[in-house]
Please model this.
Amino acid sequence: EVQLVESGGGLVQPGGSLRLSCAASGFTLSSYDVHWVRQPTGKGLEWVSTIGTSGDTYYADSVKGRFTISREDAKNSFSLQMNNLRAGDTAVYFCARGSGLPEIPWFDPWGQGSLVTVSS
Amino acid sequence: DIQMTQSPSSLSASVGDRVTISCRASLSISNYVNWYQQKPGKAPKLLISVAFGLQSGVPSRFSGSGSGTEFTLTISSLQPEDFATYYCQQSYSGPPTFGQGTKVEV
Model:
């Protein structure tokens, strides 16, 4: 079964850092682009970041310079390092496998989501 | 960025109803639209992709249509398990963007 499982969410103060991880199983991670998408409580979906199979990275303007996506194919996992967090970053973060081109993917499947709360 | 606008934001329907959800792109995106279903507290699920159409395991009562700037997701006969929020997403030009969602309620 193809599955993605996130870990690492929690409560952090503004300006703090947090690292989300996504463990993949049931497929060969190295063959796929992977992504992070977030959803503030009660709101819609916002693409955050992508890392392609060659290590090429893409970021939403709202997180560029603060978030870093990385992957470890040998460990079947990828991560999102989030620095200088702001209240506006509060959301459920989903990891997802991508299809299509890395810049213009569709997402399937998705992880279960990990809540990140930025508050003092 | 390409803006995706869904209508309505929410709708009330009954089991057996035919339901239509619209999605409009801010510029022409050919047929590069994907549709997702999300139930409360769960991750989105891909229903229809631009490349493969209806995903494996998705009931045939779901269908997608449209091109250019106007797209539609249709549920031909609403079932109890279809009450959820639906999102369109464009994969024509980066960054990928989503509609704001349409909640289908009883």
